[in-house]
Write a structure and sequence with these properties.
The protein has 203 residues and is mainly β. It is built from no helices and 13 strands.
Length: 203
């Protein structure tokens, strides 16, 4: 996304093991997962939308601002055990732009947000406690399976919420389809066929 422009939506995307070679050794890349902006002068404004995305075991950061001065909207995203921050949006934005992280979670690791970042119904906020018992599986090996013959991502239990988790039905309605009484704090694969109505016009 470096030196990109305009409106950039991504739905049900996975970013994992960036910064590593096939033999497991570190690569020369910087090892970030989702890089939400960037330019040589650190002054470009990208309007980025990440819905139902998952990033895990990247050598550096998971969801990374990457010096973006534009708007960033993350709904129902999950991060697991990234080497740096799982979510990193620390730098101030250009006037009139915003950063929102709603219905999102991480397990193992930390985050870095500037005070301008709007956070609602996220797993690190008061009222939530995240443990391994919240998940059906925290083994990422399933995600390394080949894609299906139609190109879809493989079916996995990794980072899916287990029955009884206090993260189920505890999200807020952001305009994406969901199952149950309210959205969960996690990606929902079947709930990504459309953008929220508020995001369907060009920025």
């Amino acid at each position: 996304m470096v030196a990109g422009h305009g409106r950039i939506p991504m739905t049900v995307c996975w970013a994992f093991k960036n910064g590593y070679l096939k033999n497991g050794s570190a690569s020369t890349g910087n090892g970030n997962g989702f890089k939400m902006g960037g330019s040589d002068a650190y002054d470009l404004k990208h309007n980025v939308y990440l819905f139902n995305c998952l990033c895990f075991i990247n050598r550096a950061k998971g969801f990374d601002q990457n010096h973006n001065k534009g708007s960033m909207t993350l709904y129902n995203c999950s991060a697991f055990n990234n080497g740096g921050y799982n979510y990193s949006i620390p730098e101030s934005l250009a006037s009139g732009y915003s950063a929102k992280v709603y219905n999102s979670l991480y397990y193992i690791g930390s985050k870095s947000f500037g005070g301008f970042v709007e956070q609602m119904s996220d797993s690190w906020l008061p009222g939530f406690t995240v443990t391994s018992a919240d998940f059906v599986s925290i083994d990422p090996c399933e995600a390394y399976r080949p894609r299906k013959t139609n190109g879809d991502l493989p079916d996995i239990n990794f980072m899916h919420l287990a029955a009884g988790s206090d993260l189920i039905d505890m999200g807020m309605d952001v305009g994406l389809p969901y199952n149950g009484e309210a959205p969960d704090l996690r990606p929902v694969r079947q709930a990504i066929q459309r953008l929220p109505a508020a995001q369907q016009t060009s920025a």
